[in-house]
Amino acid sequence: MSKTIKKENYFPAILKKQAKKIKPQLIIPYEYLFSNPKGVAAFNRLTESKSYWLSSDSALIIKQNKNYLANLLKDYTIVEFGGFDGSSLNDVFKSGQRFRYINIDIGKGILSMMKNNFSKLSNVKYSLIKKSFADISFIKKIKSTRPKALLFLGNTFGNFYPKEGDQWLKKTYQLMDPGDLLIIDFDRRVSSDKHLKCYSVKECALMLILAFEDYGMPVENLHSTFVMDKDGIHGGVTVLKDFTLDHKKFKSGDFIEVMISLKSSPVDMTKRMSRAGFKTIKQLQSDKKHMIQLIAKK
After folding, report:
1. In terms of C-beta density within 10 A (0-12 exposed, 13-18 middle, 19 or more buried), how is residue 170 classed?
2. Angle subtended by helix axes 162-175 and 266-276, to nearest 10
3. What angle do CA 166, 170, 171 make, to 5 degrees?
4. Is residue 106 packed enough to be buried (19+ CB in 10 Å), middle (13-18) or exposed (0-12)?
5. What is the number of alpha carbons within 13 Å of residue 242 lying toward its C-beta?
6. pLDDT confidence bin for 2, thresholds 50/70/90
7. Are 284 and 67 in contact (CB under 8 A)?
8. Which is the most buried residue in 15, 107, 248, 273, by most CB within 10 A?
9. By three-state DSSP, how is residue 291 classified?
10. Is the dihedral of CA 261, 267, 272, 273 positive or negative?
């Protein structure tokens, strides 16, 4: 970790809740959360946290529906967006059936982590495509004799603002072939206190400050911050001391954003997917009921 980053600049994170929609002074690209190997490592630790239900409940959905998913996905080429080491589907892969898995991820050191994860899963033929899921035009070039099942697990889709998310759904639908599947997890809205508690762990806060260090900001002037507004969680930093970067002035108290995690409902998500052309064929959840998984078909 850089010598400029001190724990007091990121943990405990500043937590805020407000009724009005927040207006960040600047939004830096989401990819900076995973441009630093230490950020990737922090995320991997985060997925094991019981407080961070975005990963734990997503994993529980798969675990509690593993037989259904194994029988479904064995006939598809699985394409997961942001799959990290590929372990999210291990409960499905352990069914023993043969699977074809492609991970779409730009994180550093991902292939090494995938090799480690799949070392004991000889029934899975896996590969990595280092692309951002923001522009998925490349999926048309994926060669497969099977139909494709595109997976957006966790709350990755929630990292899109609504307009961007709808555009992504429409473009994805256009690029998919008839019979392809789209499987999306999303986070249901609960109280702001519960949502903020989900993110108020050290690894979340560390990922934020590392992202801004990689972007080139003076992290000694910043503090990791999560804000819950009417749409969901916004992650970034609060400026502690005025500074200028690339001729742009930032003042004490400004909020700079790097990620969002918008919340939805099964009805709203089904409608959004329907407007894009998809037909929802199944809804899955765990007994924790924080996350919902929708399976839709073109």
Report:
1. middle
2. 50
3. 115
4. middle
5. 3
6. low
7. no
8. 107
9. strand
10. positive
Helix H or strand E encompassing 128: strand 124-129
In 3D space, the residue among 193, 198, 213, 188 whose CA is nearest the CA of residue 265 turns out to be 188
- Sign of dihedral through CA atoms 85, 88, 94, 97? negative
The residue extents of the domains of the chain are 7-51+191-262, 53-189+264-297
What single letter denotes the amino acid at residue 170? K
Residue 14 near residue 240, CB atoms below 8 Å = no
CA gap 171, 212 in Å, rounded: 30
Query: What amino acid is encoded at 86 in this protein?
Result: G
CATH 3.40.50.10400 fits 53-189+264-297, yes or no: no
For residue range 72-96, what is the model confidence (pLDDT) as tens digits?
Answer: 999 999 999 988 899 999 999 999 8
- Among left, alpha and beta (phi > 0; psi -120 to 50; other), residue 187 is beta
| DSSP conformation class of 188 | B
